[in-house]
Fold each of these.
Amino acid sequence: MQPLLNMPWQELADLAMPIMLLICLAIAVLGLDLIRKPMAKSGVVPLALCGTLLVMWLGVPRWIAAETPQPMALWFFDRISWVGAMVVLGITALSILMAPTYLRNRNLPRGEYLALLLFGVVGLWVMMATHHLMMMFIGLETLSIGAYVLAAYHRNEDRSIEAGLKYLIIGAVASAFLLLGMAYLYGGTGTLDLLAYQSFGGEDLPNSTLYVKIGAACLLAGFGFKLAAVPFQWWAPDVYAGAPLPVTAFFATAVKCGAFIALWRIVTALAPLTGVLWGEMFWWLAVATMTIGNLAALTQTDLKRMLAYSSIAHAGYALIALVVTASGESGVVVSLLFYLIAYSLMTLGAFAVLIALGGHDHEATDLSAVSGLARRRPWLAAAFALFLLSLAGLPPTVGFFGKYYLFSMAIGAGETWLVIIAVLNSVLSVAYYVRPIVEIYFRTESEENTMTRGSFPALVPGVRVVIILALIGVLLYGLYPSGLLTLLARSVG
Amino acid sequence: MIPFIATNIVTVTIFAPLIGVVAMLCIPKRYGDASREITLATSLITFCCSIWLACRYLDGAPTEGYGLYVALPWIPELAIYYRIGIDGVSLALILLTTLLTPICVLCSWQSITWRRKEFMILLLLVGVGLNGAFAALDLFLFYVFWEIMLIPMYFLVGMWGSQHRVMAAMKLLLYTLFGSLLMLVSIIYLYYAGGKTFNLLELYQVFLPATVQVWLFAAFALAFAIKVPLFPFHTWLPDAHTEAPTAGSILLAGVFLKVGTYGFYRFAMPLFPEAVLMAKPLIMTLAVIGIVGGACVSIVQPDIKRLIAYSSVSHLGFVMLGLFAMTEESVQGAVIQMINHGISTGALFLLFGMLYERTHTRQIADYRGIAPQMPIFTACFLVVALSSLGMPGLNNFVGEFLILLGTFQVNQWAAIISATGIIFAAVYLLWMIERVFFGPLRKTIGSNVTLASLRDLTGREALAVIPLIILIVWLGVYPRVILDRTESSVATFLQLMQRSAYVASTDGVP
């Protein structure tokens, strides 16, 4: 690591400007929320939204310029970190759009929600844009503390409180594993710098390889909790189902993307040190995660829980990319990034539809809530069906292409059996993704006429925008993924 | 504009139905009833396009290879191209698809009242998938079209089917996906093994080791065998055909199943010739079981639609037998049988759909002696049924005869046993006709429908049936119309299949 005095400070300040601005934005939102005038209270949402977009806008030129990134102090702003940051910020913007009416209807404060969300994003960004395990841990904790509160944000509802508490306890265990793993790694190698690991060969470890292996396993367990990978997934369905819907959407998408990118960094760094074992661990993790996620999702009748299990299954598919990475093929990260973007688009869309379905003060997430939706809201129904088909991986949606690309990379790296298992899982997943479609569309005329047609809430503009954007993304990148692919491929370089 | 359409006529034919889809999405709700007219117009435009396509293809028909070939980059980063081109076989299947679509619209004119607009949109989308699959010369593109036709069909069965539609639709979706996703793995594997290309014409030149071929062929064959359906993968078919609305049944039996046999003909067999040699006895046995078994099961069906559905299993067994016998006659016969089965069985479902519209029962036992009430209908049904059971002079005879002739040279027993399938076909169809149309008239079905008041065909219904009847007679009397056009395609196919014989005879050393 460079001596701090020789740092190119100006350059660092320039690169870190967007994230600093994001921190300022989060504080500004909190501050504005303190003013007890209604004007100020209603100003937080536009402020947060515009601020997020501004940060994205500032990030783009730095992303393009990051051709040969240098680690600076503990930061490492390479292009992958920028891709990750852009994805997470985009998801955040959509999460901000979805939330306000939902929160207002339930008399929940908006300022804190936005501030916690933004601080969480700062944490995610730190996690992705660093090459140092300690820094990564700090980012993860910043994210997690915000996340615990957000899970319990609906403080009048038991389920939400339970979700927050569960998340807190499990999160603490995960953090303990992470710290333990880092300690072992430090013991084995004498450094926590991920870039430094790459300079070690297979044999010339300073101390014991056993320490490195234990450390890697502990890190994997810690991240396994965060990603909700089997066998560390037990908390996820309860937390996802208990947390308010916009929060669940954020957890299922942004948090997963960030954690995957951070884990990818660790995997690439440790791959030369840990050898075959590392790849095998990921192999089993991937298989267990997708299979158990899909099997459990089959029995769900609550759409939120079903989507929670589906997100576990999708994490399993994404883990395929890490299996390949762990065996030394680093080019596969493009497919991982594409998959994460695809997954985020369709999952956000599906959650946005669930928010749109909800009543004034309750969430309507039971399977029966969508019965006959095609009649009452044909466009919303069609959008939901499309998101579900995309999640199931059927063309011409982005879900299909994402899966295809991932599988193609894996087969190219010789993981044919893993892909066959994943493909069989996909067939399994179709069985539950079409259940809402059956409810929406496959009722007869007389059945639909007898259904109680209660008051159906109007579609909030913010939610509508999210659904439309997700829809465009799902179809556009499904039919014409070329543009995004080129962009991602250049970002990996 | 016109030159542009003329050069891209294949693309235009594939995507022409989308015009109607967009139009229907845009029209306001109060004009919702116009969806029938829009769909009919669009499907007729598509049919005209396909006629134009046929003219253009036949103008400069290449003696081998593919006409009207177009290759445009789609996802060039991953070597995925929009490659389309047609030969005689795909041309015939495209014509069949575009002909059956307007007929489907006509037969759904009054029977579909609920969510008519959605129905029409989905009907057009199935056409896009089907035509695309028949024209694709890029494996990835083929796969995408293959899946695209499935989703609208799933909705057609699930939304407008009869009582057990949800189960039937689910079976259709899961069965087909199970096969096709394994095929996707195989496609990707082939992509790497064949030097990172999805180009079918390049992949034809790739020769893989026999062990690899067997696995890849197994995955392809499973996907196609489920679609065909080959015994024992046929269990989804009776449910889907029976539960689907009439238009869905026509498309399913008429063209949907042909994608499976076409897949064998275009992809699975020429790509893996050596594996085909190994699998030949197995698949021919399954085909024979399908022919005889399907026919036997048909005999005992109390439900007319189910009876026709099982007869499809039997007829498509002939196609598979002909393809795998791999003689010139048998493959020619298989190709023409694909078209003929589409016409005859499509017509059977169409005609029965008209009867069902009047009586709302599928049980044979509910009918008796309706011939005097509906003379024209009865005449049409008889002609179609006779064609389906292979009466000389009508279309199905040609294909079945050629297949048996070709198979007999290779495997006498298979030909002899299969020939009994034709006898059984006479049994189940004629017996069904006897019970439904002849004898003393049964007065009532259930409580409210009286058979005595059945109307004969209306003008609209006759309009839907007549083209098919003309084709049945025309192709029966003068099959050269198709045989001449498909000759070069079949020759290319046999040439590709011979790669394995060559390698096998010289023990791998050229």
Note: Chain A touches chain B at residues 374, 389, 394-396, 400, 404-405, 407-408, 411-412, 416, 419-420, 423-424, 426-427, 430-431, 434, 437-438, 441-442, 444-445, 480-482, 485-486, 489 (CB under 8 Å).
Amino acid sequence: MIAFGLAMAQSPGAQAARARKANFNTLLGAYKVVGDELKRSDPDLAAIRPAAARMDQMARQLPSWFPPGSGEESGADTKAKPLIWTDPSGFRRKASDLQSAVSQLDAAAQKGDLQRLRAAQRTVSTACNACHEVYEERFW
Amino acid sequence: VNTAAGEPSGVKVWDLATRLFHWLLVALVVAAWLTGRTDRLDRHKLVGEAMAGLLVFRVYWGLVGAETARFSRFVRGPGAAWRYLRNQAAPRAGHNPLGGWSVFALLGTLAVMALSGLFAVDQDGLESGPLSQFVTFGFTRFASRLHHLAFNLLLGLIVLHLLAVTAYQLGGKNLIGAMIGGRMRLADGVVRPKLAPVWRLLPGLALAGGVAWLLWRLDQA
């Protein structure tokens, strides 16, 4: 039983699930830098720009974080629903919505347009949420 | 000694401040649950900020407020709880030793929820607690998880609380009426609990209002 569990934990699927979690943490960590600055009355663009660029780069890779076999069947602790792999076109659409939202965010950041940055922030969060609603297991 | 003997309408066991606290807390817990469940996090945060102020008031009242509201009176050791369970404890006004633990656990869990909520960030990254910008991303995730865990604990404690109150109510002790009107009929010889002077509310209200206002301001930036 334990040996089986260990074998599962080291399977390529489980490794991919763990890497995915690390990637999401990096992506969200960068998003927090942007959000924290936008909470201030005088946001620091020098802090926002590299974070937004990093987000843009990562959002493009996001679909590759979900190789087949990296769902719950891998034995990894993941909230990724099987629907991701049974409805790949729907999932890709959500991912591309995020990519275009994040690229708007990055463009506004590089331009230094705070008003558009704040609007893009809402668009990005809406895109995050739209995907989580359908493809992520919730707490309850 | 001033005892409760010969007062048919009962004696004042819960002062107005404690009763208002209780029912406001009920309203805010319901509001927090509804707004959290439906992802209305902008409103959820307002509820949380009010809740933080309310809990600050309760801590203040637990230190210097009416006698039955004070922690020093109702948070008792396991010996007292054991004697109470074996029916060997002299009756007293206010929480019994077991009920005191239940109240302390409820308040403690709500305090954990309020504190963790201040630092939590929702995973879609738009709504964040009023103090989240002062901590690392890792800590915000920890705070979010703690917030959810504490909620499950809170649900359990609320169920226990309701079951216990119902049991006493069926057993002939009108606990619900006492938490509404403040009065309760006590056995002969039970000492009438002391109330607190009204002016003592003022520092507590100022403190609670200050905390809620400060958190709300931090959120408006």
Note: The beta strands of chain B are 11-12, 183-184.
